[in-house]
Amino acid sequence: MAYIANTAFEVYASNISRDNLQNITGKFGTVTGEGFTEDDCSAGFLCVRNGRLPLEGYSDASLNNGNSWYMNAAATGASPAGFTASRNTGIYACNSYDVNQASAGTLNFNFPGRALGIKTPKGERGTFTEIMIGEQYNFGAGNFSTAPSGSNLYCTITNGLLVAQAAAPTDGSVYFQVMDMTKRFTEGPYDGGAKYTLMALRSVAATE
Question: Which of 6, 23, 45, 153 is 20 to 30 Å from the Cα of 147, by its Cα?
Answer without folding.
Answer: 23
